[in-house]
Hints:
Layout: E1 18-20, E2 23-25, E3 31-34, H1 37-40, H2 49-59, H3 72-83, E4 89-93, H4 96-113, E5 121-125, H5 134-140, H6 143-146, E6 156-159, H7 164-170, E7 175-180, E8 183-184, E9 190-191, H8 194-207, E10 210-214, E11 238-241, E12 252-256, H9 277-290, H10 295-316, E13 321-327, E14 330-335, H11 339-348, E15 351-352, E16 354-356, E17 360-363, H12 371-390
Parallel strand pairs: 3-15, 5-6, 5-7, 7-10, 10-11
Antiparallel strand pairs: 1-2, 2-3, 4-12, 8-9, 11-12, 13-14, 14-17, 16-17
Helix pairs in contact: 2-9, 3-9, 10-12, 11-12
Amino acid sequence: xxxxxxxxxxxxxxxxxxxxxxxxxxxxxxxxxxxxxxxxxxxxxxxxxxxxxxxxxxxxxxxxxxxxxxxxxxxxxxxxxxxxxxxxxxxxxxxxxxxxxxxxxxxxxxxxxxxxxxxxxxxxxxxxxxxxxxxxxxxxxxxxxxxxxxxxxxxxxxxxxxxxxxxxxxxxxxxxxxxxxxxxxxxxxxxxxxxxxxxxxxxxxxxxxxxxxxxxxxxxxxxxxxxxxxxxxxxxxxxxxxxxxxxxxxxxxxxxxxxxxxxxxxxxxxxxxxxxxxxxxxxxxxxxxxxxxxxxxxxxxxxxxxxxxxxxxxxxxxxxxxxxxxxxxxxxxxxxxxxxxxxxxxxxxxxxxxxxxxxxxxxxxxxxxxxxxxxxxxxxxxxxxxxxxxxxxx
Length: 394
């Protein structure tokens, strides 16, 4: 018999009824250290007082009006994102997949509005994950997400990760732009080298293409800067964000330059709930925290501590850990055992981590994580590795 909730998730046999900071608690009061942050979502930790206050205050005023009317909180959040980024305009959504859908439509509309409707294809990269809609699974190109859902949506040309020659060969008269995650999350915490991102910018400029960044997972302070692409000193034409900007409340956005967004006139796109008063109240509160003086510098310092401790952990467990990779508070452990086994062993130690492609376990703690939390998490990973080492070979 099918369960009440559609069984599309392989859920762990544990549930949580409350959270505080970097910890979550079961109904029985057992504490777990959360180094998954709901897949890089709870950027400010669980029940951050400032976010709780902002949401509660807004909930007492008005929850929803729709985008048929002026939205002061949305306008405020858009202006703040613009001031802190390359963008001139913002469209708000409820999720990363919706933000990517907007980005894809915007790229196509840009060329159509400029007299080239034939330019609708995007070049994407192997290992990418851009969402679960029909268009975004086609953009990601992973067979496990495409299987069984009919013909793949047209308009995406995928090339191997980091291969410049294949990328250049894929560009043709129908190409509209290039879509890439500056740091692949689902694909196994693979950071795109800065020189490659710079080359993409030059390539787009030379060929009249739009450069689109997917910072749904790596944005909003996750790498120690507000956006991951800032480390490379390049800017996209369009960018999708979500996850961390809502701190746990469903919120996403598509940011763009005025030029790239010129074709998106009234009626070309819309969302019933996107950027509603509750969501943007929380989004503004998140920016209050993340953009506070010294906050991102603190993320960078704690990220270095995490990276160093994970490097030492790898040396201690060469039979379990193959590689440590990533940037900022977006780290990955590539395993020599199944990553699901390491993830389960960590859960046994009351540590939440998340699997990813390439047999990687992701560590995505809230950005408010402390040095003491990091030390505790690595101790738990050490015990998890020891437990795996003690198991007899299959």
